[in-house]
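Exercise 7b. Backbone tokens:
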């Protein structure tokens, strides 16, 4: 292919189907956030009161954890492109372990809510909270598995796909955190 016939799609790292998945997931989460924000308009006081029951410290810690894991995923790709397989594998495992730490904290947060008697139908806010953050946690779990599989089968293309997926997980959390936990 000559430079004159190249398109923007040719310059994307990883596989085109991974990008189709990423865009579709971003659209799903975007729609969820739009519905959440629309529902909040109908009961701003109730949503603010419900939001105050959240653990913002745990969520902020999880933000730092995910951003750090994204750094390790990006580092893994850079290391593998430099033919440093061992370092790439270690970085992928570090990213996955941080993802597991995120899940542990999120699980503790969910358990704390349940212990307080707060469940998905306590208030419409919690319906969205559990749905959006739970769906995100499922993506984190999938990403952890993906990162570990790619650490095992560490072809550059595999790492590009896994890293792109992991950065999508990071991006979604960076959007969820302020909207769900902070914005009133």
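Sequence design result:
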């Amino acid at each position: 292919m000559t430079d004159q016939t190249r398109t923007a799609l040719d310059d994307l790292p990883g596989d085109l189907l991974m990008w189709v998945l990423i865009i579709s997931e971003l659209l799903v989460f975007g729609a969820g956030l739009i519905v959440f924000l629309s529902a909040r308009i109908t009961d701003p006081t109730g949503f603010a009161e419900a939001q105050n029951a959240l653990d913002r410290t745990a969520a902020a810690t999880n933000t730092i954890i995910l951003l750090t894991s994204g750094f390790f995923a990006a580092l893994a790709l850079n290391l593998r492109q430099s033919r440093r397989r061992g370092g790439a594998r270690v970085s992928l495992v570090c990213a996955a372990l941080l993802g597991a730490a995120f899940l542990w904290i999120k699980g503790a947060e969910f358990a704390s809510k349940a212990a307080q008697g707060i469940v998905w139908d306590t208030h419409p806010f919690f319906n969205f909270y559990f749905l959006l953050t739970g769906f995100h946690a499922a993506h984190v779990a999938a990403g952890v598995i993906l990162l570990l599989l790619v650490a095992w089968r560490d072809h550059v293309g595999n790492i590009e796909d896994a890293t792109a997926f992991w950065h999508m997980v990071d991006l979604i959390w960076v959007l969820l955190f302020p909207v769900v936990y902070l914005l009133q």
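Instructor comment: The helical segments are 16-42, 44-51, 56-81, 85-115, 124-152, 156-182. The chain has a mean pLDDT of 91.
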